[in-house]
Specification:
Blueprint lengths: L2 H30 L3 H5 L10 H19 L14 H16 L13 E7 L2 E6 H26 L6 H5 L3
Antiparallel strand pairs: 1-2
Helix pairs in contact: 1-3, 1-4, 1-5, 3-4, 3-5
Length: 167
């Protein structure tokens, strides 16, 4: 399996499934007469980030992960989304961006150094495979699972099959 095949499909699977989960969340709000901004601002615990930020971070980790692993320019996307539609649009743009990477861009990326910020004044350097398995994927999945958990906690009828997406 190529490094591209280990990276890109994994990001795409969850980005796509979250699009479907947000569609269900939007329908849930309509059916239950819940203001969408209430669900978008929901958290699992007061010190955790809200649903909107969880989706934004999922997108950031996928896009920045691909960029860093291919030594491409790391995109910067402002966090301006305030609706389900805008979040689904951000997911769609991220999906398109991730799909734009070609297998050859990842060649040797598993063994190349990846330097990335880990705070306002610090960076860390890991080999590509280690960056993917110890930083990028864990953060990506953490925020995706948290978004799923927020939806489920608030009564949106989503389950494991929704999280895993279409196979």
């Amino acid at each position: 399996m190529s490094f591209h095949d280990a990276v890109v499909p994994a990001y795409l699977q969850i980005l796509s499934s979250l699009t479907g989960e947000l569609t269900k969340a939007e329908a849930h709000c309509e059916a239950k007469k819940i203001a969408p901004e209430v669900l978008l601002a929901s958290r699992l615990y007061p010190d955790m980030l809200p649903l909107t930020k969880q989706i934004q971070l999922v997108c950031d980790h996928a896009a920045r992960g691909c960029a860093r692993l291919t030594h491409s320019e790391v995109p910067s996307t402002p966090d301006t989304e305030k609706s389900f539609g805008e979040l689904k649009q951000r997911l769609a743009k991220t999906i398109d961006y991730v799909k734009s990477f070609k297998p050859e861009q990842f060649e040797g990326g598993d063994a190349k150094d990846v330097t990335f910020p880990i705070g306002p004044d610090r960076t860390m350097t890991l080999k590509g495979q280690q960056f993917l398995s110890a930083f990028s994927f864990p953060n990506f999945y953490f925020h995706a699972v948290t978004a799923h958990g927020i939806l489920r906690h608030n009564g949106v009828e989503v389950g494991k099959r929704d999280f895993l997406g279409a196979s």
